[in-house]
Design a protein that fits this description.
The chain has about 70 residues and is of the alpha+beta class. The chain is about 25% helix and about 10% strand. Strands 1-2 form a two-stranded antiparallel sheet. It comes from Scleromatobacter humisilvae.
Length: about 70
């Protein structure tokens, strides 16, 4: 991961896979977080929020979006 983070992003670790990534949940609209690109649906989002206490990396979100039958 780069040492320089975009404004509003934070360095963190994915609670699902343990990989490092830059979370942009606090970023402004000019530099939104990558997670807004994933279409997960309300039920899946509720499941993820109930399972994980923090944001997931792009790889995990992509896997869960591509395979909705995969357990969180």
């Amino acid at each position: 991961m780069s040492d320089t983070l975009a404004a509003g992003h934070r360095a963190t670790t994915c609670p699902r896979c343990g990989g490092p990534f830059a979370c942009g949940v606090g970023a402004d609209r000019a530099t939104p977080c990558f997670c807004v690109a994933y279409k997960l649906g309300a039920e899946r989002l509720a499941e993820l929020r109930a399972t994980w206490s923090d944001c997931l990396c792009a790889g995990c979100l992509a896997a869960l979006a591509d395979h909705p039958e995969t357990p969180a």
